Amino acid sequence: VSYQLFYWPDIPGRGEFVRLALEEAGVSYRDVARDPDAMAEIEAKLEEESIAHPPFAPPFLIAGNKIIGQTATILLFLGDEHNLAPKAVAGRLWTQQLQLTIADLVAEVHDTHHPISLDRYYEDQKREALLRSESFRKQRIPKFFGWFETVLKRNPKGPTYLVGASISYADLSLFHVVGGLRYAFPTATKRALHNTPHLVGHVDAVAKRPRIKAYLASERRQAFNEDDIFRHYPELDG
Amino acid sequence: VSYQLFYWPDIPGRGEFVRLALEEAGVSYRDVARDPDAMAEIEAKLEEESIAHPPFAPPFLIAGNKIIGQTATILLFLGDEHNLAPKAVAGRLWTQQLQLTIADLVAEVHDTHHPISLDRYYEDQKREALLRSESFRKQRIPKFFGWFETVLKRNPKGPTYLVGASISYADLSLFHVVGGLRYAFPTATKRALHNTPHLVGHVDAVAKRPRIKAYLASERRQAFNEDDIFRHYPELDG
After folding, report:
1. With contact defined as beta carbons under 8 Å apart, do B147 and B141 qualify?
2. Is the pLDDT of residue A201 over 90?
3. B191: which residues sit within 8 A by CB, 6+ positions away?
4. Quick one: pLDDT at residue A1?
5. Which residue has the higher pLDDT, A2 or A44?
6. Geometric angle at alpha carbon A73, from A72 and A76, rounded to 5°
7. A11-37 burial by CB neighbour count: b if 16+ within 10 A, else e?
8. Chain A contacts of B111, Cβ < 8 Å?
9. B2-5 LR contacts (CB < 8 Å, sep 24+)
């Protein structure tokens, strides 16, 4: 199998959740973001009138004659294809439910620095970003982390992974979100992680998986930065 | 089959996307929101320590020994169980992809009146809400509606439904979102729908389906109101 991942260049972004699944699966893929003409190629694909299932926005994945958009839907597909989710209905749905809760958290992270509009610079909504980030740090990070801690604690197969005894795409996504929050809100994240030892252990376990470890050390992995979802603006942390 | 839907009382909310699927499927369900002790029952279920797959928040559905959270995951399940999505992989993923794009739109609607924090009243974030709504009305409604229009236009089976020639859970959700936007932002929504005739036809077709029509006329259907996701604050429209 060979895939093409379409996502904006120069940021990990939501494309990273897909990359981590592809890397853990050990499959070959073309990362369009690394092509010098990436922007033009993505725009052209979004405009292509012959596509019956047009994606709304990147990321989207081309897999044979399929084109699949929405991060969690791409992962639903990859989970089935590459054993990154249970086959049984209940576990399969649970993995997707976890993923959508992670997606809700990611959307809230994005809104910390863009509470008013995607079309305005951070500097033009900084006052609002300060207010939104305060509530995000104080209420939302602890609430989400507390829930993940509970999920790990209640896993009948032990707290290493979110679902059963094997890695799933939701584990990879949670790993990335915690990494992103450590980058963007180091003080608030450290404080919250103090109360969630299983979550700390979970993230460490994912980082040590051979394919993930190799990926993180490779040039395929992009660094967090201030054009991304997870932005380190010190004034928003605390 | 008998289901129990857990969702907050007194608002259609995200529970409504699940209700519409249950109604179209013609299955019996208990709507916990209509119970006088709904709040206590929901809180108790969220706290229940024996649940291995605890939901993060309502809505969640109890189906036999399963408990399923996240609106789109509940619909993924109901789609398979009640023929509200294609059985083939490509169509099944496409339906979920549409649903997640609808979910993104719903989250943006919510943020128009709560751009800063869930924990503060609208009145305390009204200035920010005015700014956020302007960008939502001018950029986001036309962008989402334009995409749904394109999806309907490109459906090889014709523009009546989003996926193939039959109704899916995504059609029911889109129907509700357009209804909610007509309620909350009547002027901006009317303007945007002027350019999307297939979307107007789609919403009309869903409203005329016998089970949906009967549901909308019943006491089971709740009215839109200003505690809901879709709120009519005239100052935010225009």
Report:
1. no
2. yes
3. none
4. 57
5. A44
6. 90
7. bbbbbbbbbbbbbbbeeebebbbeeee
8. 111, 115
9. B2/B27, B2/B28, B2/B29, B2/B30, B3/B27, B3/B28, B3/B29, B3/B30, B3/B61, B3/B62, B3/B63, B4/B29, B4/B30, B4/B32, B4/B61, B4/B62, B5/B29, B5/B30, B5/B31, B5/B32, B5/B33, B5/B59, B5/B61
Q: Cα dihedral angle (A185, A190, A192, A194), rounded to 10 degrees?
A: 180
In contact, B38 and B31? CB cutoff 8 Å: no
Q: Check if B117 contacts A (Cβ < 8 Å).
A: yes
Residue-wise DSSP of B153-174: HH-TT-SSSSSTTS--HHHHHH
d(CA A18, CA A72) in angstroms, rounded, equals 9
> Cβ of B147 and A56 within 8 Å?
yes
* Omega within 30 of 0 (cis) for the link into B59: yes
The string of pLDDT tens digits covering residues A155-193 is: 999 999 999 999 999 999 999 999 999 999 999 999 999
Nearest to B78 by CA among B161, B129, B164, B17: B17
Contacts of A219 (CB under 8 A, 6+ apart): none
Contact A154 B97 (CB under 8 A): no
Cβ of residue A119 closer than 8 Å to a chain B Cβ: yes
Phi and psi for B68 in degrees, rounded to 5?
-125, 125
Do the chains contact at B97 and A155, CB–CB below 8 Å?
Answer: no
Q: Which residues of B94-114 are buried (b: 16+ CB within 10 A; e: fewer)?
A: bbbbbbbbbbbbbbbbbbbbb
From residue B222, alpha-carbon distances to B2, B19, B208, B218 in Å are 21, 11, 18, 9
ipTM, two decimals, is 0.97
Q: Find the closest chain B residue to A69 by CA distance.
A: B97
Checking if the pLDDT of A210 tops 80, the result is yes
Q: CA nearest A8: which of A21, A19, A22?
A: A19
Q: Do A128 and B111 touch (CB under 8 A)?
A: no
The tokens describing B59, both together, are 């809505």
> How many helices and strands (H and E) does chain B possess?
10, 4
| Tokens matching residue B17 | 């996307």
B77: three-class secondary structure by DSSP: helix
Query: Hey, is the C-beta of B219 within 8 angstroms of any chain A C-beta?
Result: no
At position A73, the amino acid (one-letter code) is T
Per-residue model confidence (pLDDT) at position B119? 81
Bridge pairing between strands A2-6 and A60-63: antiparallel
Q: Which of B74, B75, B44, B47 is nearest to B62 (CA)?
A: B74
pLDDT for position B1? 56
pLDDT tens sequence across B32-74: 999 999 999 999 999 999 999 999 999 999 999 999 999 999 9
Q: What is the largest CA-CA distance in chain A?
A: 52
Query: Rounded CA gap, A174 and A102, in Å?
Result: 7
